[in-house]
Design goal:
- The chain is 27% helix and 6% strand.
- It has helices at residues 41-45, 49-55, 77-80, 82-86, 91-104, and strands at 65-68, 73-76.
- The protein has a two-stranded antiparallel ribbon with strand order 1-2.
- The protein binds iron/sulfur cluster (2 copies).
- The site of one iron/sulfur cluster has 11 residues, from helix 1.
- The site of one iron/sulfur cluster has 13 residues, from helix 2 and helix 3.
- This is 4Fe-4S ferredoxin-type domain-containing protein.
Length: 131
């Protein structure tokens, strides 16, 4: 964004805060150490290291994040949509991505995101492409 243009009001964030667009049906963030419930807050606020490579940014929603409407939760696309995230078509390559991603993102180790969610003002639209 050019330095002389103010961010739109619905995406402005105070220093140390990030505006995240959550699906209304997403579960609330559990305490640190509790099992991950797919609230998506961590990946919407800031990509993990592999997510930074995929997203080419250090803040904001990760491009690999996927919303699972049937399960009403977010999930890492490297695990549930490896072909869509990476563009790899071969089944063996997609399986390899899933296997590596489990290690890269420490899947199943519980919530390690020390974030606090504060509801914002309803309205506006999520950035293009965000789940
Ligand atoms: S790790 Fe925590 S913040 Fe991230 S999706 Fe899971 S429960 Fe939500
Ligand atoms: S866990 Fe997956 S969706 Fe979340 S930031 Fe990392 S790569 Fe992106």
């Amino acid at each position: 964004m050019p330095p002389d243009s103010a961010p739109p009001p619905d995406t402005a964030a105070a220093p140390g805060r990030v505006v995240a667009w959550l699906q209304p049906a997403a579960p609330p963030k559990p305490p640190v150490g509790a099992p991950c419930n797919g609230c998506g807050l961590c990946c919407l606020a800031e990509p993990c290291p592999v997510g930074m490579l995929l997203s080419r940014r250090r803040q904001g929603a990760c491009v690999a994040l996927r919303w699972q409407a049937d399960a009403q939760r977010y999930a890492c696309g490297l695990l549930i949509d490896p072909g869509g995230v990476t563009g790899l078509r071969a089944a063996w390559a997609q399986r390899t991505v899933v296997r590596l991603a489990r290690r890269w993102i420490a899947a199943g180790t519980g919530c390690d995101a020390d974030l606090e969610a504060a509801p914002g003002t309803p309205g506006g639209q999520p950035p293009h492409g965000q789940p």
